Amino acid sequence: xxxxxxxxxxxxxxxxxxxxxxxxxxxxxxxxxxxxxxxxxxxxxxxxxxxxxxxxxxxxxxxxxxxxxxxxxxxxxxxxxxxxxxxxxxxxxxxxxxxxxxxxxxxxxx
Length: 110
Description:
By secondary structure, the protein is mainly alpha-helical. The chain is built from six helices and two strands. Helix 2 crosses helix 6 (about 85-95).
């Protein structure tokens, strides 16, 4: 197995995760929707404000949308988003925050 590429999260993702950390969120627990729902209690407006900074393509990924999705569509989605929607969005954010390592697998020569 050979490491081909290692990609780190985008700067905008790291900034949003740091802002969420200031609100008391733990970055590695963002992948757990139940944790997010518990942490969102009383903080929904602050989290929406933090998430409103995303632009294409991250706004579409955070919202879980496909196809043509404009910044205006994202703002509408964010305005309507409830606690469950935001918990899922934070889960997607946790996935975007991960370092990706691409490996090439080759059968060993005997």
